[in-house]
Design brief:
Blueprint lengths: L6 H10 L9 H15 L6 E2 L10 E2 L2 E2 L1 E8 L4 E4 L4 E3 L8 E6 L4 H16 L4 E6 L5 H10 L7 E3 L6 E2 L10 E2 L5 E5 L4 E7 L7 H12 L1
Parallel strand pairs: 7-8, 8-9, 10-11
Antiparallel strand pairs: 1-4, 2-3, 4-13, 5-6, 5-9, 7-12, 12-13
Helix pairs in contact: 1-3
Length: about 220
């Protein structure tokens, strides 16, 4: 896998975790988080039984991986690739997946995206995709991604908020809740959305890698 990050980078990760923009108010963040925990992560999703075994614990900085109950299947939602074309999110069922939501205004995302890029390059059994919640143009997102040196990580766009939402009313009917940025949802090979990790996590930690391994059999 990767070498451990220098201590100063890890310290920056800790300071920047869970960045919440002005458009994502503290109230909507809290309500959104409670909505996820209260099982409305996938408003129209199919509830399924959870894994027989508990996933490994993963804590990074001030945040920890949170298991969702009840669990639901990865929903059908249209994703638009940064380079053109689209696909159905449900097509990833059958493979372990890290589904990351980010934005260019998020300082913590600048640190996490290159880590996810390396993770996808090194782990061929894992799908890792990053969905931009920017409301700007495709060209603006592309310039930002290039500035980070990201080359292996598939980048998708959700400019209208149909995949993820930060408002308590969920006016677009998006299946995933955003109550901080970045946030990563972990999906098992079975297609179950196991839970989420808020903030810029260090995916090189042994605990993170153990959780990723768990996704293959869950």
């Amino acid at each position: 896998m990767f070498r451990q990050k220098p201590a100063n980078v890890l310290a920056r990760l800790d300071r920047l975790r869970g960045t919440i923009p002005g458009s994502l108010s503290r109230r909507s963040a809290i309500v959104g988080g409670l909505a996820v925990i209260g099982s409305s992560l996938l408003d129209n999703g199919e509830s399924v039984a959870g894994p027989a075994e508990q996933p490994p614990a993963f804590t990074s900085g001030r945040y920890q991986f949170t298991l969702l109950r009840p669990q639901q299947m990865l929903p059908s939602a249209r994703l638009f690739h940064l380079d053109g074309g689209s696909l159905d999110l449900a097509s990833f069922r059958g493979r372990p997946l890290l589904l990351n939501f980010w934005a260019s205004w998020c300082a913590a995302c600048r640190l996490e995206l290159p880590v996810l890029d390396k993770l996808r390059e090194s782990n061929k059994n894992l799908e890792v995709i990053a969905v931009s919640e920017d409301r700007g143009t495709r060209q603006q997102v592309a310039r930002f991604v290039r500035s980070l040196g990201v080359r292996n990580l598939p980048i998708y766009l959700d400019p209208n908020g149909y995949v993820a939402h930060s408002d308590a009313e969920n006016r677009t009917g998006a299946p995933f809740s955003l109550y901080g940025m970045p946030i990563t949802y972990l999906i098992a090979s079975s297609g179950r959305v196991l839970g989420y990790m808020p903030g810029a996590a260090d995916w090189t930690e042994p605990a993170a890698l153990a959780l990723i391994d768990f996704l293959e059999s869950a």
